[in-house]
């Protein structure tokens, strides 16, 4: 950035600070806003966004740009900045609403990709503990997929892919949590149903090795040795170096069994698909 541009930015920032001081340090009134052009109001919003802890302080300015200059280029910029400012405040509902309004109004604009990404983040950033309702996780996955599919060459798509994988892993973690709960209480059939979901639907996540081991545990507890041996075989084929395989191998050999494909159950079918390269 050249010296002239740095000087111009500094002068602009000082001018904006002086204007805010003239307003008594508070937000300008409607009458004061009406005396300003769109660019000035927009830059006041940027100044607030950079210097205030609350994104809502900046939203006021960006909203005024839209109100006073609804068809201007600055109004377009102000709308996407509203979505960002709300997100900064963790006001995800309003961030999502602003981002969706931008997408609906300016679907062909370059910032539409960013608006879609912000919309996805408004769901994703609410995913925290495994124990919460997973509806937000599903919504995050759908929104992230939209970014990946519609803007595959963008930086937003690359970031969305990483977040998609983490959200997907989050769903698998939820199934594992419930499965462990049932297993500890000797509800083996209910536990198996949860671990099966991980193996069949979330096999690319980090939870698959443990899910297979828990299947070995559950099936052995029910006396279903064919299924237990087959789960051990899949675990050995894909995750031989993990502690989960070591534990499963110990459990099986302790009962005189080996990890090998037995019978024709769902695990045996998965094993055969895997050998043909159609699984994992």
UniProtKB/TrEMBL annotation:
Annotated SUPFAM superfamilies: TPR-like
Main location: membrane
Signal peptide, first to last residue: 1-24
Keyword Lyase: no
Taxonomic superkingdom: Bacteria
Cellular localisation: Cell outer membrane
Ranges of residues in domain Outer membrane lipoprotein BamD-like: 37-231
Keywords from the named record: Cell outer membrane, Lipoprotein, Membrane, Palmitate, Signal
Membrane topology summary: Lipid-anchor
Family note: Belongs to the BamD family.
HAMAP family for this protein: OM_assembly_BamD (MF_00922)
NCBIfam families to which the protein is assigned, alphabetical: OM_YfiO
Subunit structure: Part of the Bam complex.
Described purpose of this protein according to its UniProt entry: Part of the outer membrane protein assembly complex, which is involved in assembly and insertion of beta-barrel proteins into the outer membrane.
Protein name, as recorded: Outer membrane protein assembly factor BamD
Gene name of the encoded protein: bamD
């Amino acid at each position: 950035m050249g010296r002239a541009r740095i000087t111009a930015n500094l002068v602009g920032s000082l001018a904006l600070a002086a204007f805010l001081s003239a307003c008594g340090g508070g937000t300008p009134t409607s009458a004061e806003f009406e005396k300003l052009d769109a660019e000035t109001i927009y830059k006041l919003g940027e100044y607030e966004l950079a210097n205030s802890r609350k994104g809502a302080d900046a939203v006021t300015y960006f909203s005024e740009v839209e109100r006073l200059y609804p068809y201007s280029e600055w109004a377009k910029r102000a709308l996407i900045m509203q979505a960002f400012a709300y997100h900064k405040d963790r006001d995800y509902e309003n961030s999502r609403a602003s981002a969706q309004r931008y997408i609906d109004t300016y679907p062909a604009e370059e910032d539409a990709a960013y608006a879609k990404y912000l919309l996805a983040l408004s769901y994703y950033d609410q995913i925290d503990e495994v124990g919460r309702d997973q509806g937000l996780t599903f919504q995050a996955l759908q929104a992230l997929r939209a970014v990946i599919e519609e803007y595959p060459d963008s930086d937003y798509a690359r970031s969305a892919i990483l977040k998609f994988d983490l959200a997907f892993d989050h769903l698998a973690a939820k199934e594992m949590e419930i499965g462990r709960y049932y297993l500890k209480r000797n509800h083996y059939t209910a536990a198996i149903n949860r671990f099966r979901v991980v193996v069949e639907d979330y096999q690319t996540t980090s939870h698959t090795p443990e899910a297979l081991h828990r299947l070995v545990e559950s099936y052995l507890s029910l006396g279903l040795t064919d299924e237990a041996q087959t789960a051990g075989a899949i675990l050995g084929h894909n995750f031989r170096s993990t502690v989960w395989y070591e534990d499963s191998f110990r459990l099986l050999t302790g009962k005189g069994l080996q990890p090998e494909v037995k019978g024709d159950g769902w695990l045996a079918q998965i094993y055969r698909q895997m050998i043909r390269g159609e699984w994992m």
